[in-house]
Amino acid sequence: MFARIRNVKFRLQPFHQLVPIELEKYDAKVVLEALNNCIAHQDYHRQSRIVVVEKTDRLIFENAGSFFEGALEDYLFRDRIPRHYRNRLLADAMVSLDMIDAMGMGIKRMFIAQRNRFFPLPEYDFSQPDTVRMEIMGRLIDENYSRVLIEKADLDLGTVVALDRVQKHKPLLPNELKLLRSLKLVEGRAPNVFVASKIAALTGDKAQYIRTRAFDDAHYKKMILDYLAEYGSASRADFDRLLKGKLSDVLSEAQQATKIKNILAAMSRKDDTIFNHGPKKKPEWRLKK
User: Fold this and answer.
1) How many CA atoms within 13 Å lie on the side-chain side of 18?
2) Which sequence spans correspond to the domains of the chain?
3) Sign of the CA dihedral running 128, 45, 66, 133
4) Which CATH number fits domain 217-287: 3.30.70, 1.20.120, 1.10.260, 1.10.10?
5) How many CB atoms lie under 10 A from the CB of residue 153?
């Protein structure tokens, strides 16, 4: 099966190194572990096939049967040892042939191998009933993530899992976000979390950081006050043109419009620095003397 996969090589250039790192799309041991897990844990009563699909940027493994014992997190973070196997005789035979680990550490090994290769972590999907689906990425999603793993080889697996969720734009649990903030690895308000300035400088992606980070509201308010001081009045369209190019790139068009609306409301009601001289539907903003 592995011989049929298009396993091309590509290069990743670390920020502080002259020599690039050469990587293959897929690691043979990771692919073998994934396939052996499907074989060992397939529910053969369902008379289903084990399916392996190669997409342009990923491999997809599917086997019949639910996750047999415990949860994924048990095997990643709690070193769980399974007490039962769905297919006991088959599992014993595979252990005897060194195809799988008797201690149930295969899943964790796949995650660690992907981390050590600076790749996105495997992705499990349990949404389909009685089916386990797992994807192995064959490309880098965010090179900043990979460069952070190169520079910070001492990050524990739990932190890397959380950082992987950031690059995949997946929601973080409160404790995951708290952890990443404490390590100064991310900035931004949930769900728009991105690589922090310290890491952006570390990885050389300062321009991307400036485009995605958000200034505090005081910065935008000063721009509005300076505009009104210069021109006397402004419409909402004027402020849209003034601010939309300066707001964080992680905000959608609708979110940017709401952001500007909230800033104007705060300046007129709370700060009492501007007021609307025109009708409600067609405001004309001026400085309050």
Assistant:
1) 0
2) 2-140, 148-213, 217-287
3) negative
4) 1.10.10
5) 10
Q: Which of 31, 104, 42 is nearest to 74 (CA)?
A: 104
- What CA–CA distance (Å, rounded) separates 35 from 216? 49
Give residue 57's Cα distance to chain centre.
16
Q: What is the pLDDT of residues 216-234, one digit of tens each?
A: 678 889 899 999 998 999 9
pLDDT digits (tens, 9 = 90+) for 91-102: 889 989 988 876
Strand order in the sheet with 131-137: 51-54, 58-64, 131-137, 123-125
Tell whether pTM > 0.85.
no
Helices 236-243 and 217-231 pack at an angle, to 10 degrees, of 130
Q: For domain 2-140, which architecture applies? A: 2-Layer Sandwich (3.30)
CB atoms within 10 A of CB 22: 9
